[in-house]
Amino acid sequence: MRDYRHLILCSDDYSRYTEGYFMKANSQAPGKFKEYAAKVEKQHPKSKKSRGGREPGREMILEYLVEQDITREEFTPYSLQQSGFYERCNHTVMYLARSML
Question: What are residue 72's DSSP bridge partners?
Fold first, then answer.
């Protein structure tokens, strides 16, 4: 775990199942997203939505969403009205990480 400096959180809107992937570099984000999307597709085939973000490798992720026919929704970053669940997840993870230090 020492070399992992980045974390990507992926959540399923249908079940609210959230999974975190540790990464050594931000460039691994598209691969981790594809891995998660494949796992969720097996569990909930009708749940096909993605929320916009400013993550690294964004262009590769957008191409993947178009290929897989996944609907993409934009929302304003850091606004609790639109992204309350995701903001709470981020706050919880950051709180847990700080308490472990």
Answer: 50
pLDDT tens digits along 43-91? 766 555 555 556 666 777 778 878 877 777 666 666 656 667 777 787 8
- Paired tokens of 98: 């700080």
Token match 């690294």: residue?
56
Token digits of residue 9: 């959180």
- Helix and strand element counts for the chain (H, E): 3, 4
- Superfamily assignment of 6-100 in CATH? Ribonuclease H-like superfamily/Ribonuclease H (3.30.420.10)
Report the DSSP pairing between strands 18-23 and 49-51: unpaired
